[in-house]
């Protein structure tokens, strides 16, 4: 089972219709581009993913545009569009969780995103879905208690324990 080791902030620069994620080159102390999503992203997260304790760590970049397109790209790879109508997203343990304007929460494994070829479509078949209230947005996730906090359009908060998060916690407990 893959483990998310670290969620890092990253520097980015938006050029008209192009976003370059900049990585720190430790040897020279300069920033070098490593991911180009092709569109400017409002929110970008970098996740360190490890397939096992002996496998090398892979960086996975996630970005969402103002029009709601969610991209994922492993380091130095071409980006993949996960969904077109995304309202919000977060990373919870080993899962990328996002809500859509179709009133669904999707749960996709970070190891699947990091390992899949850029040409493969993983948006619908490989992610579990859960219906949510119309207009729900993700506030935060709490992997240790398998909770996902959603904000409803009227402002009230709802805490749910989605099945994929509960199964991931059970799987992690069995492995230890």
Instruction: Please summarize the sheet with the most strands.
Output: 5 strands, antiparallel
Strand order of the largest sheet: 1-5-6-7-8
Apparent shape: globular
Strand content: over 45%
CA-to-CA gap between the ends? 12 Å
Order of helices and strands: EEEEEEEEEEEHEEEEH
Poorly predicted parts: 1-19
User: What's the number of extended β-strand segments?
Assistant: 15
What is the alpha-carbon Rg in Å? Answer: 16 Å
Backbone structural class: mainly beta
The residue fraction in helices comes out at 10-25%
When the domains are counted, the total is 1
Count of DSSP H/I helices: 2
On the 0 to 100 scale, the average pLDDT is 78
Describe the fold and architecture:
The chain is mostly beta strands and 176 residues long. The protein has one domain. The chain has 2 helices and 15 strands. The protein has a 5-stranded antiparallel sheet. A 4-stranded antiparallel sheet has the order 9-10-11-12. A 3-stranded antiparallel sheet has the order 2-3-4, with no helix packed on it. A hairpin with a 2-residue loop joins strand 9 and strand 10. The longest helix has 13 residues. The chain is globular. The N terminus is likely disordered.
